[in-house]
Write a structure and sequence with these properties.
The chain is of the alpha+beta class and 502 residues long. Among the domains are: 1-72, SH3 type barrels (Roll); 444-502, Up-down Bundle (Methane Monooxygenase Hydroxylase, Chain G, domain 1). It has helices at 75-87, 116-120, 132-146, 162-177, 187-202, 255-261, 265-270, 280-283, 295-308, 313-330, 348-361, 365-373, 390-420, 446-476, 490-501, and strands at residues 12-16, 22-31, 34-39, 44-47, 52-54, 92-95, 98-101, 150-154, 203-204, 212-213, 216-223, 229-237, 334-336, 343-345, 374-379, 382-387, 428-434. The protein has a 5-stranded antiparallel sheet, with no helix packed on it. A 4-stranded mixed sheet has the order 8-17-11-12. It is globular and about 85 Å long. The model has no long low-confidence stretch (mean pLDDT 92). The structure holds adenosine-5'-triphosphate (ATP).
């Protein structure tokens, strides 16, 4: 809770530097509303009281595990605590029952040692160091003890580490709810192996993250009377379709395209593929390889994981046939046709890609060409066919590639769900929500707008539960407390949602 402070000469404080960073120092002079601070780096700063925050003189050098124990809960205090812990490889910190994870961008082996799940089993939150396993354990125990379904919300901006945290949560829940000694395709193994499959088709390299999820995911684990996983359902939201045909430096298209181009030679030959640099949907950006990633191995691993989640070999071939077809579609270029404002494939190369795409999609080549170069307008009683110019034909081609890819993704999610199976008699559920993180680029598309709006909605849900409802409860119970300031984004939501409603 925030404590009342007075600014006196000699006390240590945080002050916001004009460059937006927080610096610490000692108050050396108080002149009305101007406070002079000598920072530890030797810089003299004059600031107003509203920009100055008190520092806890008893703050331990390695920080505190739970930030509710901070003498002053303010932005510089929170950031300083997270930094102190991060410096000693402690990337997890609690704020009450909320776990904050700071992305280390490197493996920290001691955090995920083989005995770690065993250690967290049945331990109350806070007894051991903060960890996603503790959060998952707490949700699991609450479900068992109170007989109530639980949900875990994973939130943060793009690249913050949500997907990695989600995987750890699911790993722990699979450990707790798994059947010991079960082999083959158990529900929990299928749930865990759904991750590499969905990442292959729904993740891509972005400016912020080499493995950015370009879809939202809600995993619902179903448990029986005895607390064992009896079924699961994966729901996906809003796959970013535009990426299929449009990639800008230094990003990449979805991983599956690159891994297929690096598949064993007989596979690549059978789909008439080759170097990713020769495909329009991949070569709009100069990024092809990801550091430390062997695409051939990824291809084989993805196929293995597909097998575990119940996608058989024929279905796997069909999936990759569609992926290959999309690459060929992207290489069909159009030129002016014989009639006014009409179009046709540009040359033999384009005709080759058109024919290959038709073969792979198992459709008639002429019908495929017509679907790009012509538009059928249905009027009452008759259908009028209109020719399209080369630009419009290319747009139709891209539209087809996007819709086919998004249907393929939905099909994969459905197939995984069918294969894992639902338990209609399940007693309780634990849901884990992992959505794409907040993004802000120089130019933001409509998809970024939707992603960010979703994040604002989640932030409001968080505000509701963590601040508004808690504080209302304190007021109702007449508990002596001091109000915690927080940025309420309800206005932003009202603005956007009311406009959408209108
Ligand atoms: N706990 C961790 N330990 C080691 N590396 C991590 C950890 N968390 C994240 N990373 C690294 O950071 C990268 C980005 O993390 P992640 O994909 O989980 O971010 P995200 O928040 O899900 O991003 P997006 O919203 O873009 O999908 C990971 O690919 C991994 O390299």
């Amino acid at each position: 809770m925030a404590a009342k402070v007075s600014y006196v000469v000699g006390s240590n404080v945080w002050v916001q530097d004009p460059e937006e960073a927080w610096i610490d120092g000692e108050i050396v002079e108080v002149n009305g509303k101007d406070i002079k601070i000598n920072s530890t780096s030797g810089k003299m700063v004059v600031a107003k009281p509203s920009n100055i925050y008190p520092m806890d003189p008893e703050f331990p050098p390695s920080g505190v595990e739970d930030m509710t124990r901070l003498a002053y809960l303010h932005e510089p205090g929170v950031l300083h605590n997270l930094k102190c812990r991060y410096d000693i490889d402690e990337i997890y910190t609690y704020t009450g029952s909320i776990l904050i994870a700071v992305n280390p961008f490197q493996r920290i082996p001691h955090l995920y040692a083989s005995d770690m799940m065993q250690r967290y089993k049945g331990m109350a939150l806070g007894e051991l160091s903060p960890h996603p396993f503790a959060i998952a354990d707490s949700a699991y125990r609450m479900m068992i003890n109170e007989g109530a379904s639980q949900s875990i919300l994973v939130s943060g901006e793009s690249g913050a580490g949500k997907t990695e945290s989600t995987k750890l949560l699911m790993q722990y829940l699979a450990y707790m709810g798994g059947r010991s000694g079960s082999e083959g395709r158990s529900v929990e193994q299928q749930v865990l192996q759904s991750n590499p499959v969905l990442e292959a088709f729904g993740n891509a390299k972005t400016v912020r993250n080499n493995n950015s999820s370009r879809f939202g995911k809600f995993v619902e684990l179903q448990f029986d009377q005895r607390g064992r996983i009896s079924g699961a359902a994966i729901r996906s939201y809003l796959l970013e379709k535009s990426r299929v045909c449009q990639v800008s430096d230094p990003e990449r298209n979805y991983h599956c395209f690159y891994m297929l181009c690096a598949a064993p030679k007989e596979v690549v030959d059978s789909y008439k593929l080759g170097n990713p640099r020769s495909f329009h949907y991949l070569n709009q950006s100069n990024f092809y390889e990801l550091e430390g990633l062997d695409e051939t191995k990824e291809y084989l691993e993805t196929r293995r994981a597909m097998g575990v989640v119940g996608i058989n070999s024929n279905e796997q071939d069909a999936i990759f046939r569609v992926v290959a077809a999309i690459l060929h579609l992207g290489n069909i270029e159009f030129t002016k046709g014989d009639e006014v404002d009409s179009s046709q494939p540009k040359d033999d190369q384009s005709r080759f890609h058109l024919k290959t795409a038709a073969e792979l999609l198992m459709c008639d080549v002429k019908s495929l060409e017509d679907s790009f170069c012509k538009r059928v307008i249905a009027t009452r009683g008759e259908a009028i066919t209109k020719c399209l110019d080369p630009n419009s034909a290319a747009l139709s081609r891209d539209a087809l590639a996007k819709i086919v890819y998004s249907k393929l993704f939905d099909w994969i999610v459905n197939k995984i769900n069918e294969s894992i199976g639902q338990d209609p008699d399940s007693k309780n559920l634990i849901g884990v929500l992992d959505i794409y993180g907040f993004e802000s680029f120089k130019t933001n598309s409509f998809e970024q707008f939707c992603i960010n709006l979703t994040n604002e909605k989640l932030q409001q849900h968080f505000n509701q539960h963590v601040f508004k409802m808690e504080q209302e409860e304190y007021t109702k119970e007449e508990i002596d407390w001091s109000y915690i300031e927080f940025v309420d984004n309800q206005d932003i939501l009202d603005l956007v949602e009311k406009v959408i409603e209108a």
